[in-house]
Amino acid sequence: MMRVFTGVLLAAAISVCLAQEAPPAAEDPVLEKRVLTLSEELRCLVCQNQSLADSNADLAVDLRNQVREMMQQGKSDEQIREFMVARYGDFVLYNPPVKNATLLLWLGPFVLLVAAGAALFSYLRRRDRQLPAQALTEEERARARALLGESREER
Amino acid sequence: MTRFLIPLLVFVLIAVFLWIGLSLNPREVPSPLIDKPAPAFELPQLREPGGVIRTADLNGQVWLLNVFASWCTPCLEEHPHLVALAERGLVPIYGLNYKDGREAALKWLDRHGDPYTRIVVDREGRTGIEYGVYGVPETFVIDKSGVIRFKHIGPLTPEVLAEEIMPLVGRLQQ
């Protein structure tokens, strides 16, 4: 009984594997590579956090076909990007262009980095001033010497 | 004093940004098509096979373009509002049957009512791409000279119709 059950499970697993086999690639592997590279930087608007290349949503499949077709017509990557932006807006790009509306997005991290660096620098300076270097007492020196000496002997 | 003030300010700043950011709807992507001419199409009609509608035929009137499909569940949500709007006869509603089968679409309309003046068929979703459609249903307001003036993504609500679409249509019709 158990064996039959395992057999059925295996058969089911195999059929699932077969069913999920990748769709046949188009005739031209170079073109497919280009389609894939470009669709990786285009957003699938239905799933939003996946690229066109990753998504199997209906719209993503359609848009990949659109990209492929435009490439077959000899359109450049830039022209295809413009086509997508004209219809879906900058949001479709994973690399948004630098312009006034996106300036904060592009410069924000650097501004934060500089601000954090400045804050750290001034904090360290202030702490430095608050804690004047303290001279060691003779007793402490002796202890330090002993400790250092010991570790040297051990080697 | 500044020891507490600075973290407090930082906290308030972050809270405000999160408040704004989290209350925005990420599904509502501003369309770059607003105030641009509606992409031209020449599409077969659903009810009269062989009949064709061109965008140029529709110039000279304010019209709504509603993208729908029989497989689209949220379309059911807005459909009664569209039917009610059609009964008032204030503005022609053109339907774009998006990636649907003819039979399925006709059956769906029989069952839920047909608010559309005319319906065009976009079997492959090409026109949808031209209009930047990514979530059915979507509704466009197009003015007399064929310029897109407004776009609503997702199911129409009575509020959107009463507060945004109909006032805009009224202004455009003058």
Name its key features:
heterodimer, A: 155 residues, mainly alpha, Helicase, Ruva Protein, domain 3, 2 domains, 6 helices, 0% strand, elongated, B: 174 residues, alpha/beta, Glutaredoxin, five-stranded mixed beta sheet, two-stranded antiparallel sheet, 7 strands, 40% helix
Notes on the structure:
The complex is a heterodimer of chains A (155) and B (174). Chain A has helices spanning 2-19, 29-40, 58-72, 77-88, 103-130, 138-154. Chain A has 155 residues and is mostly helical. Chain A folds into 2 domains: 13-97, Cytochrome C biogenesis protein (Helicase, Ruva Protein, domain 3, Orthogonal Bundle); 98-132. In chain A, helix 2 packs across helix 3. The longest helix of chain A is centred in the last third of the chain and has 28 residues, at 103-130. Chain A is elongated and about 85 Å long. By secondary structure, chain B is of the alpha/beta class. Chain B has one domain: Glutaredoxin (3-Layer(aba) Sandwich), CATH 3.40.30.10. Helix content of chain B is 40%, strand content 20%. Chain B has helices spanning 2-23, 73-88, 102-112, 126-130, 158-173; strands at 42-44, 52-54, 63-68, 93-98, 118-122, 138-142, 148-153. In chain B, the strands form 2 sheets. A 5-stranded mixed sheet of chain B has the order 5-4-3-6-7. The A-B interface holds A 45-46, 48, 58-59, 62-63, 66, 85-91 and B 26-27, 29-33, 99, 124-125, 128-132, 134-135.
